[in-house]
Amino acid sequence: MSIEHDRTPPTISExxxxxxxxxxxxxxxxxxxxxxxxxxxxxxxxxxxxxxYRPNSLARSMTTGETRTLGVxxxxxxxxxxxxVLRGLGEAARSAGYDVLVLSTDEDRNREAAxxxxxxxxxxxxxxxxxxxxxxxxxxxxxxxxxxxxxxxxLDRLVDTVEADAVVINNREASRQAVxxxxxxxxRRVGFVWGPVTxxxxxxxxxxxxxxxxxxxxxxxxxxxxxxxxEEAGIPFDTSLVTHVxxxxxxxxxxxxxxxxxxxxxxxxxxxxxxxxxxxxxxIRQRGLRCPDxxxxxxxxxxxxxxxxxxxxxxxxxxxxxxxxxxxxxLLARIAGSDSPASTHVLEANLIERQSVAEPSTLTR
Amino acid sequence: MSIEHDRTPPTISExxxxxxxxxxxxxxxxxxxxxxxxxxxxxxxxxxxxxxYRPNSLARSMTTGETRTLGVxxxxxxxxxxxxVLRGLGEAARSAGYDVLVLSTDEDRNREAAxxxxxxxxxxxxxxxxxxxxxxxxxxxxxxxxxxxxxxxxLDRLVDTVEADAVVINNREASRQAVxxxxxxxxRRVGFVWGPVTxxxxxxxxxxxxxxxxxxxxxxxxxxxxxxxxEEAGIPFDTSLVTHVxxxxxxxxxxxxxxxxxxxxxxxxxxxxxxxxxxxxxxIRQRGLRCPDxxxxxxxxxxxxxxxxxxxxxxxxxxxxxxxxxxxxxLLARIAGSDSPASTHVLEANLIERQSVAEPSTLTR
DNA sequence: GTGAAAGCGCTAACAG
DNA sequence: CTGTTAGCGCTTTCAC
Lengths: 365, 365
Fold this sequence. Notes:
Helix content of chain A: 40-55%
Number of strands of chain A: 11
CATH architecture of the largest domain in chain A: 3-Layer(aba) Sandwich
Strand content of chain A: 5-15%
CATH class of the largest domain in chain A: Alpha Beta
Oligomer: homodimer
Order of helices and strands of chain A: HHHHEHEHEHEEHEHHHEHEHEHEE
Largest interface: A-B, 55 and 55 residues
Low-confidence stretches of chain A: none
Distance between the termini of chain A: 80 Å
CATH topology of the largest domain in chain A: Rossmann fold
Mean pLDDT of chain A: 93
Number of helices of chain A: 14
Largest sheet of chain A: 6 strands, parallel
Structural class of chain A: alpha/beta
Number of domains of chain A: 3
Radius of gyration of chain A: 26 Å
């Protein structure tokens, strides 16, 4: 059996001819539908194997109208959070017989629009999207998916103007808990590392609410949770304790360094994403500060390294895997025809307390 | 302009009719080939936009035979190494106008075979594969891609029996350097954390070579580099210093704990993957050992957290991004028709020395 | 510069 | 149980 380069793969017709039967019979056999007599079935199967026949899913999709493929549009495929979600999503999809086509946008709305176009063009059966839009922004490039009634599930971020199923976590409450834990230990100046990206810091709390309206829902919620905790404790909001930098690690380091240089620096920091956490840690190390003796710290998104750090770092852990599987299940249900009204599923993130939090040192106080 | 659920999207025919021209003209306009008079062109474009026309890439692919999609089959989409590679790969593909379909195998050969089948069925224009096969294993499920002459690039791992372009790292030399660096500091007992998975440890060096033959190429090379370094220094090989456990973090921790309990424990450890490193760190912490005072450590794959650890950890850094872009470029070149003989590209990984290595303590010596 | 017609590989009605 | 036929939406000759 020599391997020859047969540039024209065998089709159903060829199998049919070689087996001496009609095309439909072969299609039924290979497609596993309809009924075929065992005898011819076996012969067809044998011939198909012999010829190295593989179904052409493109052709199949053309006629059936379904591709058994889920499109996923994520902000950043490098972010451990999304990586975790993707694993859950992929597993759930695969076990339902679906493949997953992943596109990354780097939070760029044009790329998001392009990604949606690609997915629509490829006729995916449904789309999971973690939108790069603020909570009250309008997202015109989703019109096409609404118009074509392509099942859509929003992931991790809500958008007021989009009516679709959504799977998110209780960012606000989780954030509030984390900050409250800090306050409970006696901290009154808590830095918040990834506030919404803006050109200049919020003028005041009211201005902040306006900013939050155009920030990613998840970012806004985390900030709101922070404000909640402050308010509960009667601590006035200080704009200089919230960063508004681009979400890259070096930016976080610089911003934290800035906070630390304040005349009245934070005694604790809440870093709301993985890169914010490593960036913050770097700043702390650069200043020669020790955690938790000199400064307390809580991160977001659990990871193996966070628990093996010295000290082990307290984090708000998101159920990433479950987030992914749930998103897939939601979408699959829609694809299967469910027409219940759009609903938002809220999963719980929980604070995992380790050893990065202590009382504020009397020195820095 | 109300959004109606138009379950049958506009086709070229409909645009043609609405614009009062023939289908071919519309196809030429929308497809951007052939030539069309500016006037009709504009009218068609206007009508197409009005109708919300989107090309159906499935139909297009059916006739052209190309999908402008690259298939990628990876062992583990959760591994930071592959995540990094994927980013590079995705960027390169995207900028060439290709999409990427990623499938994960978890090192399971059956799933790998299934993944290949999916990709072949979906008519991807080329495949990047990081095979779950040992260096001298045979991979029957690749016959079909050879037979159909589907461009293939091996990623990170070589397989003797597969003739295809490949993009890998100089694992052996990088590993040798790392171990040599440890030895240069005076270590003579160096633990090696992720040796090939086997049921029982190698009986001797010869037995080990046999094992390496059926191990993943990259794993084998790293182990060979370790042996090289030992040999250079005239240090006898001790099988109890190489793990053969499954590649999951807890396994690494347990294995290292075992080594540490030896009557003559290692004074340094070389952890050849991210999870091996965190697992090793955990074992070190559990034993209450301090790095580098009590035990030295070198990891594999750089990461932000490794450099922010206390102490910052020395690692062998792989050019992950470049690995990805190069793989994409290779594949794209083949797709474009290059027929130069298959070649293997070897990229360099380099040791980044930080502060996790010191002289062995006189105590544990 | 433009249109008519064939066909990519498959499924789905419908006959037989 | 099996074969014939008609498309799916697009590109691509090939005439006009």
